[in-house]
Amino acid sequence: MTEYLTYRCNECGSDNVEYSAYVQWDLGSQRWEIYEQVDDSGYCFKCGSYTDINEEVVTSLKEIAQITIAQQERNHDISNG
Ligand SMILES: [Zn+2]
Known about the structure:
Elements: E1 5-9, E2 17-18, E3 21-26, E4 31-37, E5 42-44, E6 49-51, E7 53-57, H1 61-79
Antiparallel strand pairs: 1-7, 2-5, 3-4, 5-6
The structure holds zinc ion.
Residues 9, 11-12, 14, 44, 46-47, 51 line the site of zinc ion (ZN).
C-alpha cells in the first residue's frame, strides 16, 4: 500500500502549516519548483506562531480517502485537458 506523508505542527498537531520558500520556473516539468527554503522553522496557522514542523506518515483512513479523491480529481482534470 502506498504511504502518504503529512506535516504537522510540533505544538498542537495541526496540519495547517507552511514553510516559506523561493520557487523557480522549470520548463521541463512545467511547474514552479522549490529551489530554496526561506525559513528554517515552519509557521502554524492554528498556533499563529513559528514552530517546528514534523513529517508524519498518514494513518487516518479519512485522510487517506481525502488524498485518494484529490488524486482522482487531478487525474480527471489532466485527461480532460
Ligand atoms: Zn500549531
